[in-house]
Write a structure and sequence with these properties.
about 450 residues, alpha/beta, OB fold (Dihydrolipoamide Acetyltransferase, E2P), Rossmann fold, Ubiquitin-like (UB roll), six-stranded mixed beta sheet, globular
């Protein structure tokens, strides 16, 4: 069975919510919709206090090429355009809307009917994706229309659909595949049409046999789409690792997937593209996993963008008493939340409750030069060295040792027997080095 060739680990999967039906959360009394995304320039508000909006109405216009439109996920009255603390711990611009009913724009197809045929030209498809504010749902929230517009002189030979979901605990992609498989396959054909490619691969780890079987059977009716079962190994969901596993091609340092002739899209993004192109539906909701060893009702929940995570947690049974830490996302690449009073954003994949006894960091000890961190690094880096250089502010040395290639998967910290916070220091150093590189490019 295929997998990537460099590094990797196998944490306990803890997929407690696997196989459960997606539940829809009730509409809140108010939403706070972020205008800023994890990647790209914040959108610019096009509404003001007192305006009445409908579901799907544009409230934030993309401000540049690497930016994304933002739409109202509810109908009601805009109470203010202000700043709001988000999951990253920073205050970002957001639109506050008091919910009044659930009135949608008339041009959005709300029915569950599957629309199979797409006869739109490439430019119109791209316009719909861009207008709908579709971003990558695999973590970075990179605007989808940018990925689907290769740089001049570059041509994709294939598209890879990332349905790996290698993070422990998370099952939102798995649940989506089981309930929306046909729509996902139509979305893949739309992407193939945009990129003018004849081949698409859906990478799914072997711990999801039901999704592999379902999509494999349905894919027989769609020319050029192949389901590729993958060995369970973290971080197989990383773009470069997935490309290596499926195509056996290595993306060069500092380059992107198009350099080796492919484009990677998350399976959740594919479904959103289907809805945007075939249903005129903007990105106003997403599936979020709420889980943990003590979670009262671990499951996958359909949530309107802007719903407070505290309300989602309450609807999912509340926060367990033995919770010592709450993580936004998965345990490996997610980030600790200071509070649940932050809005659901386009990139919100999960709420994970960590028990008290597991949330306490063990005492940091000296590095014993065991090289375990080097062995498991999927990018072939030397994490122990990068941490030492970050501690000593050795930024030129960190750049020379390819710290910008780090995908922040956390495999090094996970495997370290001395409990050293390798990723924390590397992430800090990577942020600093990245700023230095950007400033240098401006001069």
């Amino acid at each position: 069975m295929k997998t990537f060739r460099i590094g990797g680990i196998h944490p306990k999967e803890n997929k407690f919510s696997a196989g459960k039906k997606i539940q829809t959360i009730e509409l809140p009394k108010q939403v706070v919709i972020p205008l800023s995304h994890y990647i790209g320039t914040p959108s610019e508000a096009v509404i003001k206090k007192g305006d009445l909006v409908k579901v799907g109405q544009l409230i934030g216009k993309a401000n540049g090429f690497i930016s994304a439109n933002v739409h109202s996920s509810v109908s009601g009255k805009v109470t203010k355009v202000d700043v709001q603390l988000d999951a990253t711990g920073y205050k970002r611009p957001a639109v506050f809307i008091d919910v009044e009913g659930d009135e949608w724009l008339e041009n959005i197809d709300k029915s569950s009917d599957i629309v199979r045929e797409c006869t739109l030209p490439k430019d119109e498809i791209l316009r719909r994706i861009q207008d709908a504010g579709i971003v990558g749902l695999g973590g970075a929230t990179f605007p989808a229309h940018v990925k689907l517009t290769p740089p001049p002189g570059k041509k994709a030979e294939s598209v890879i659909i990332n349905a790996v979901e290698c993070e422990s605990y998370l099952t939102n992609d798995h649940g989506l595949m089981l309930e929306k498989a046909e729509e996902i396959l139509i979305g893949i054909k739309i992407i193939m049409q945009v990129l003018d490619v004849k081949k698409a691969f859906i990478g799914i780890e072997a711990n999801k046999p039901d999704a592999i079987k379902l999509l494999s059977n349905l894919a027989k009716n769609y020319t050029g789409i192949e389901v590729v079962p993958l060995k369970v190994s973290y971080p197989q969901g990383g773009e470069k690792q997935l490309i290596d596993a499926i195509l056996r091609r290595q993306v060069p340092s500092g380059k992107i997937p198009i350099e080796v002739g492919t484009v990677v899209q998350n399976v959740g993004t594919v479904f959103a593209i289907y809805e945007a192109v075939q249903k005129n539906k903007p990105m106003i909701e997403r599936i979020v996993t709420v889980t943990g060893k003590s979670a009262p009702n671990p499951g996958n929940y359909r949530v309107r963008i802007g719903t407070m995570l505290s309300e989602l947690a309450l609807d999912a049974g509340g926060v367990p008493e033995d919770t010592g830490k709450i993580v936004g996302g998965g345990p490996m690449m997610g980030r600790s939340l200071m509070t649940l009073d932050v809005p659901t954003a386009k990139g919100s994949a999960g709420i994970l409750y960590i028990q008290k006894q597991e949330s306490i960091r063990k005492p940091i000890q000296n590095c014993i030069r065991c090289t375990k961190c080097v062995t498991v690094c999927p990018m072939g880096l030397e994490p122990f060295l990068l941490m030492n250089q970050s501690e000593r502010n050795m930024w030129p040395e960190m750049e020379a040792n390819r710290t910008m290639d780090c995908i922040e998967c956390g495999s090094c910290s996970y495997t370290c027997p001395s409990n050293r916070p390798l990723l924390d220091y590397i992430r800090f150093g990577k942020t600093t080095v990245g700023g230095i590189i950007r400033n240098r490019a401006v001069k």
